[in-house]
Amino acid sequence: ATNNNEAQTPEVQVTIKDLPITFKVKYLGSQFARGLWGIKHTRRPVDHLVSAAKSLPPNKILPFCSLTVSLDGVRMETVTSKQNAVTNFTIDTISYGVQDLVYTRVFAMIVVKENYNLKDENPFEVHAFVCDSRAMARKLTFALAASFQDYSKRVKEAEEQGGATVGGDAKGKSLRKKFAIDLRTPEEIQQDITEQETEA
């Protein structure tokens, strides 16, 4: 009976109270991204990573990893036969998250490298993960959205307490990190792209 629910996916909603949540996924890898947010900056890297994964020799498989989404960000624990590696992406370095529209079991996020300087040609990286199901990729996207929501609330509260009207400081306050999460289904994203192309 559980399979029927998965097809409808209304129960996918994740709230701040549900965090942290851990997902068992396969890590596709990372690629440079040309921008901070938008499916246009994740599509090509995801295509590239998927085709690289498809051409892996038979004895090589994608590493399994546990992806934990919490209020602090995303923690990736990769387990291989040789070692366990942990990578933390703090919420303020993640700028975008989306369920891919071509490979609907793939979740991709754009991360801004910490300590990058303006001369760095590629400060943005796309990290992509293969989920067991399309519904799981969707849930992962919603989990990150809940984390973003909490983070923006905390930033707003800090700004209000700090008083954003201090002389000459108002401008600096608006520099807080922007981020985006695309909660549309792959079909809705595709339709939007198709409509834009038709108009053009």
From TrEMBL:
Give me the segments passing through the membrane. none
Q: Which UniProt keywords apply?
A: Lipoprotein, Receptor
> Matching InterPro entries, A to Z?
Adapter_Engulfment-Domain, PH-like_dom_sf, PTB/PI_dom
| Entry annotated with the keyword Lipoprotein | yes
Q: Where does the record locate the signal sequence feature?
A: none
Q: Name one Pfam family in it.
A: PID_2
Instruction: Establish whether keyword Metal-binding is in the entry.
Output: no
Domain PID, by residue range, is 22-166
Task: Tell me what this protein is called.
Answer: Putative low density lipoprotein receptor adaptor protein 1
Q: Which organism is it from?
A: Culex tarsalis (Encephalitis mosquito)
